[in-house]
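Table S2 (continued). Query chain:
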Amino acid sequence: MSRQSKNDRPERERLPRPFAVFVCLLASLLGCGLARSSTIDLAPQATQALDAIYSGDPDTGIEVARILERQQPENPLGFLVEAEGQWWKIYCSACEIKWGMIDAWKRPKKPEDAVYLALASKAVDLAHAQLAKSDTAEMHLYAGAGWALEARLYALRDERHNTAHAGVAARTEFLKALHLDPDMADASAGLGFYNYYIDTLSTAVKVLRFFMGIPGGNKNDGIRQMRTGIEHGVLLRVDAQFYLAKNFRTYDQRYSDALAIAEPLADRYPNNAIFQLLAGNLAVETGQKEKAEKYFHVTLVSSNSDPNGPCVTRVRDLANSFLATLH
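Corresponding output:
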C-alpha cells in the first residue's frame, strides 16, 4: 500500500468531508460554558467493559456490556457501551491510508451496521423512557450519546442527510444535559466535537449549513471543550482524546500537538492497535522515525480477542505499509 506525499494531499475541500463527520459524538451551542468537575457514576460493569474495549478487546467489552443490559434492562448505559464496542470493530475494519494518514475515511453500508444502529436506537428510546419519569442531565447525556453513535456510522457511510438529522438530535439532548448540569464534562466533550467540526467546513458547505438551519461553531471553543472532556469526562473521555489528536492531524496539521495527546492514550492502552497506529502515524509526521517504528512494531504484536479477525489483519497491513516507507 503506497503513501502519498504531503505535497500530494488534497485541499480542505478534498479531505474527508467535515460535513459528513462533524457529528461524531456531537452536541453544541456556541458560547456554552466548559465543564469543570461534574461527572456521572458509571456502573462497574460499564467501566470494565469500556476498559476492555479501549484495551483492544472489544469482544470482551461487548460481553460485559450485555451483562449490564440483562441486569439493568431499563438502563441505556449497557446498550451505549455495547454500541461503542461495535463501533471500534467497524472503525478498525474500515481503516486505510490516504494522503499519508490512517483513518476510516468512508465505506458503504454493510449488514452488520443494523446491529450497531439498533443498539444506538435502543439507548435513545430507553433514555427517553427514563426522562418521561424524571428529567435528568444523565439521561439527556445518554440520549445524546445514542444519537451521536448513529451519526458516527452515517458519517462513515457518507449519508449526509441522516448524519445531519442524528447530529441535530444529539445536539438537542446535550444542550438539555448542560442546562440541567452546566458542569457535565461529557456533554462538554460533545460540544467540543461539534464546535470543532462545524468550523472546519469549506465556505460552500458553510453556506449550505446556514440554509439547512444547522448552528455554527467555533474551533477554539471546541478544542477547549474537548480538552475538558479529556480531563474530567467519564463516558466520552477516551473518544475525546482520540478524536482531538486525529483532528489536529487531519484538519490543522498540528502534528506535535496531536502526538502529545495521542501518546498517553497509546501508552495507557498498549494492546489497542488503533491507538498505536495513530501515535506511529504522528511520529512519522514529526520526523521521529525510531519512535514511529516502536509504535508500528507494537501494533504488530498487539493482542486481540480474534487474532485472525479482519481488524487484526487490517492493522498489521497498515503497520507494515508504514514500516516499509520508513526503510
